Amino acid sequence: MGSIVLKSLSILLGIFFIFMGVTKITPFISKELHKELRKEYVRYAKVFPLSEMLDFKVPSKWYRRTIGGCEILFGLSLALIPYQRIKNAANIGLILLMILATYSHIAISDPFDRCAPTIVFFFMLCGRLVVWYQTHRREMLEKLVAAQNGNGLKRD
């Protein structure tokens, strides 16, 4: 028995990340936004973590496509797959992508208004995990109480 808040957050966040992932991969939704993202990922690829230490240059085209593909995969998992373990794994994956995006914005000295949506979605994803934890904990406590009372019947 899931929470309506948890289901709503999962579906809405999933749809948003599917939209953003498709926009990063193809100009199908918005040509202008896709073109802008292509330019931005050239800058993000230059500040990719560990690229200097490992002496490895990340091609911006594949960096953008990989991030977009992960967002689509995780978004589909959040929106469509009914298993909470998979949803939580996708949620954690998206949180890690939001941390990477925040790092990239800070590393290229983007103004706060460019970084703010990433931070907002980071906290929304964290909030979804908190709601899942509270719902899961409540369900476990109800099962424990029902088992102690014997077949879920209340004893007086």
Automatic annotation (TrEMBL):
GO biological process: chaperone-mediated protein complex assembly; positive regulation of protein localization to cell surface
Cellular component aspect of the GO annotation: cytoplasmic vesicle; endoplasmic reticulum membrane; peroxisomal membrane
Official protein name in the record: Novel acetylcholine receptor chaperone
Domain of life according to the entry: Eukaryota
Membrane topology: Multi-pass membrane protein
Secretion signal span: none
InterPro entries listed in its UniProt record: DoxX, TMEM35A/B
Phylogenetic lineage: Eukaryota, Metazoa, Ecdysozoa, Arthropoda, Hexapoda
Similarity comment: Belongs to the DoxX family.
Source organism of the structure: Leptosia nina
Transmembrane segments: 9-29, 62-81, 88-108, 114-133
Main location: cytoplasm
Keyword check for Membrane: yes
Alphabetically ordered keywords of this record: Chaperone, Cytoplasmic vesicle, Endoplasmic reticulum, Membrane, Peroxisome, Transmembrane, Transmembrane helix
